[in-house]
């Protein structure tokens, strides 16, 4: 067996109960997560959950939440699925990208890219 | 203050938009370099169960079945403005991570397929993948120093690409060049999708 520190793995297990997939409707890597505005900070939540709730007051894509938490993407998704089930965050529905980009957004993106 | 912040968040949820773009291509073709040239790379990884996904590829003989492997992804963000971002995801080059592609490509606006003219065939799998799923892509030929500069038409023929697919010569280390690739892709994906 390897001598790798089991600590992080056990910690990850604790965050997800060992689940590999989030509950409920699937969501995309860049789906926008938003903290529900009326939530009352629940004291019994894990620090990671509180971090998400605080971060996502500003709508934040799933991948960014993972990068911010420094947790693996799949673990992050399990956490987000749980918070959604509790009604603490919303996660937007997947939409085909081309349909969400209207002329105005298209222009903004081109202009933004060119002025980088 | 808290109230105002929440209100803002609710309003933002309607309009916030993250546009996903994939960067694919063979091993060592310059995917990571490209993402790093145009955006700030952020650490992103995922844990996948080998027992579920990668059986027979990694050597797990004699070890209990529930072993995870870490897949690191190139992940970069370009902020256009508050609530509007482009996200670049480099798809893992190794074959054993193909399963990640399905996950990454859902809802993607489009893809950049990076090609090295010295081994063009290495981008066939990516070209096939995006063609089959109807995901718009551009082929960006990374002109490594000393590599012959292929005519785009030759590349088009070699890859068997239809006339609409843009082919761009680029240097992934140059920001202007990468901007060119991305604006070409965005325009092609939004405006130039060939009629079915
Ligand atoms: N000379 C030259 N070197 C380049 C160019 N693009 C990339 N490289 C180098 O090629 C090597 C591989 O580039 P990466 O960006 O790591 O390639 P990659 O596609 O991410 O590789 P994998 O993730 O291993 O598949 C690095 O050492 C780069 O510095 C280029 O246009 N010219
Ligand atoms: Mg790389």
TrEMBL record, chain A:
InterPro entries according to UniProt: DUF742 (IPR007995)
One Pfam family recorded for the sequence: DUF742
Domain of life: Bacteria
UniProt name for this protein: DUF742 domain-containing protein
Automatic annotation (TrEMBL), chain B:
InterPro entries attached to this UniProt entry: Gliding_Motility_GTPase, Gpn, P-loop_NTPase
UniProt keyword annotations, A-Z: ATP-binding, GTP-binding, Hydrolase, Nucleotide-binding
Superkingdom, natural source: Bacteria
Any one GO molecular function term: ATP binding
GTP-binding is among the record's keywords: yes
PANTHER family noted in UniProt: ATP/GTP-BINDING PROTEIN-RELATED (PTHR42708), GLIDING MOTILITY PROTEIN MGLA (PTHR42708:SF1)
Family, as annotated: Belongs to the GPN-loop GTPase family.
The name this protein goes by in its record: ATP-binding protein
Organism: Planotetraspora kaengkrachanensis
């Amino acid at each position: 067996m390897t001598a790798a520190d089991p600590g992080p793995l056990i910690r990850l297990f604790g965050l997800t109960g060992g689940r590999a997939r989030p509950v409920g409707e699937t969501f995309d890597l860049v789906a926008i997560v938003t903290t529900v505005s009326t939530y009352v900070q629940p004291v019994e939540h894990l620090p990671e959950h509180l971090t998400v709730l605080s971060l996502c007051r500003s709508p934040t894509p799933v991948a960014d939440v993972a990068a911010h938490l420094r947790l693996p993407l799949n673990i992050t998704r399990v956490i987000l699925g749980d918070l959604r089930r509790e009604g603490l965050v919303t996660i937007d529905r997947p939409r085909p990208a081309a349909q969400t980009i209207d002329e105005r957004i298209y222009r903004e993106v081109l202009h933004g890219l060119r002025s980088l | 203050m808290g109230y105002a912040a929440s209100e803002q968040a609710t309003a933002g949820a309607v309009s916030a938009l993250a546009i996903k773009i994939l960067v694919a291509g063979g091993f060592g073709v310059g995917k990571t370099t490209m993402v790093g040239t145009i955006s700030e790379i952020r650490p992103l990884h995922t844990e996948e169960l080998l027992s579920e996904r990668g059986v027979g590829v990694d050597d797990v003989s004699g070890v209990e079945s529930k072993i995870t492997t870490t897949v690191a992804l190139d992940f970069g963000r370009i902020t256009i403005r508050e609530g509007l971002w482009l996200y670049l995801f480099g798809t893992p080059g190794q074959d054993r991570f193909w399963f990640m592609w399905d996950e990454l490509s859902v809802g993607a606006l489009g893809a950049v397929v990076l090609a090295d003219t010295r081994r063009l065939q290495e981008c066939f799998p990516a070209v096939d993948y995006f063609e089959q799923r109807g995901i718009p892509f551009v082929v960006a030929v990374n002109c490594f120093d000393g590599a012959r500069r292929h005519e785009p038409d030759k590349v088009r023929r070699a890859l068997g690409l239809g006339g609409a697919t843009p082919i761009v010569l680029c240097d992934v280390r140059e920001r202007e060049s990468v901007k060119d690739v991305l604006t070409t892709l965005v325009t092609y994906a939004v405006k130039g999708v060939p009629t079915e």
